[in-house]
Known about the structure:
Elements: H1 8-57, E1 65-68, E2 72-75, E3 88-89, E4 97-100, E5 103-106, E6 117-123, E7 126-132
Antiparallel strand pairs: 1-2, 1-5, 2-3, 4-6, 6-7
Amino acid sequence: MMRRGFSLMEILVIVGILIVLIGMSLPVYTQYLIRSDLGIAAQLVEQALSRARLLAVSGQQADNWSFAASGVVFRGNIYNTRSTQYDELYLIPEHVTASGITVVTFAKLTGAPNLTGSIVLQSYGQETRVEVGEQF
């Protein structure tokens, strides 16, 4: 006689194996997401630094242009007193925080940064760095 379907024990074994596999893959997937978000944030920071430098070199609004590590390219030198109508926003993932150099100003026409060093991006114990030098 031919057997049809699975027994309860076989189904429980299959479900148990699936739970173990999911449990083992979840931490790997979480680490992948964190690394991916840090990579995206680093690319956004590099793009924003390049944009701020380009605006300064081209003499837009006859002023210096700056980048704040919170994800804002702005006109002028001081973030707190800036005119927000010129802001350009770069949406950095919300759980990524920045330290190190947090505001970089580029001189009009020359594009020279006022600071050199690293913008350190961190998320859940992992970090990546974006170097600020003469290239930005």
